[in-house]
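Anyone else keep sequences and structure tokens together like this?

Example one:
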Amino acid sequence: MADGFIWYELVTNDMDKAVSFYKKVVGWDIKDAGMPGFTYMIFGKDGKDVGGMMTWAGAGAPELPTQWVGHIHTANLDKELNAVTADGGTIVKSAQDIPGVGRFAVVLDPQKVKYLLFEPGKQDAPPRLDQMAVGNVGWHELLTDDAAKAFDYYSRHYGWQKDLAHDMGPMGTYQTFRTDKPLYTGGMMNRTGPGMPEGIPPHWQFYFTVDDIEAAQQRVIEAGGKVVLPPMDVPGGSRILQATDDQDGHFALMQGPKS
């Protein structure tokens, strides 16, 4: 089975504000990657990296809304890019090298959901946080037009497997899935239908783990963000919230089950 998502990226317009906000809200340690001529900040916890932050200007793009994206592992980037396009996906940015790190590309799945592909270099893989560790991404959620077709696509390309399916009534089925982790690591559902807010674009959403969701909600407000979905219980014993940061970037937090 594949690794699934192995890196997460925030693309924003004001780096200083982003660093200050997420350091306070999630509690990440954030450092400059030291890339010549390009500001790229790496965030993580306990000496283990989780992802990075960059600006749209640094990416050579005009100012756009703040966006979180994820990198899915591939052992052969060129082969996978061919497979993505053959299966109805789109290449947004062709393969590029990151010297000493690996290669990446930006793609859309057949339902126009953006994600990145990453082929690591030959160096040893760095240590990673446990799935439910504070500061890591504990859950990956896809909202799309046809969740069943989406699962077929990601399963076929990356080896993901179905886990529990939750009947959400008129909202449809919430299909959880596993990658190579001991726990299920995410879920997929349709973005439209009874009970679903209108206007949600198809997208991947990442839930950053905190130790206390109510305390995190207060930190969001104090840091200048807005809570759009207050803390609520979800199946499995976790609690989640959804919010926007102080640059109107949408993100989500979760508190894992209490033992």
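And example two:
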Amino acid sequence: MAGHEVIVRPFSDVHRTGNKVVATLLHDPTVEGLDVALYMDGSASMEDEYGPRGILAKLAPVKNLVEPQMQWMLEYLANKDRDGAVRVTYWASGDGSQIEVVGDLTGPQAKGYRFPGPKFYGKATIMLPVLRDFVAHIKQQVQAGARRGLAVIITDSQISDPNDVMAYATQVAKEISAGRLPRMNFVFVGVGDQVDEEQMEKISHVTYPGVGHLWCHRIADRMEEMAELVAVLVDETMTVAAGGTVTDEQGKVLKSYEGRLPAVLEFDVPAECKAFTLEVAGQKFTQPIPEEHEDEHHDEEEEEHHEPEPASAPAAPPARKHGGHRH
């Protein structure tokens, strides 16, 4: 049974019946090594969306519109994160340049977590500290195994420092191109009618040498649409390199997946084959094939009728896509 214990990430189960191998993926390997952070606007314009707090929260009928969206997003994003915990931060608080770190939250923690808003609502919406914070965070996480970064940034107003943001993003792209930083993406979501769409497009449309686009953006009409829109954008951003190839020890192609990689891979191998390699999104994962055991034969019929499902977290319902372009 020892052969059954050697399971390499991103696989959760591998077994062989005759010349047929069935390999189940633990998660979508296109996001292997991904570290995610969520930055929520804490400027004064958001105060009504968070609603009253303290004693006023008990007296007023106004609900916190942000909290359920944050909970939903966190649970979704945690499924993408390499260790299942997302860095959560309020930004644009205090004088507008401060950030308030909430902490690293898992999906289960997110379900009942309270998000009353920042301690001090900001007087401006200064984004540069967000980028600096995320880059510093990723540098730390690389030492712990992170190989890619994703920052989701939410705002409901115009950015106060677009030129600084663009200049810093240019430096980040140079560091990525030089191999000093891992690949990273910024998902930039605006909410409501106070967002400057032209400004968001100017930031997002820049193409960087050797890197391409760092940003993608869209605008949600209402706070209630925010979480769904984030899920759609993240899925589009992180599954650009869909599909994959399975090869044997000599590099011979055993199976090619042109579309999105299914959660269960089924393919035939030569009798002498002892391992296979899955190549996806520029990464290779080599998995030893466990020895065949007699007690597996009765499962063959059931396996043949198994319907593969997508290897990612459950997809969000389609969001209303308003304005903006994905880049």
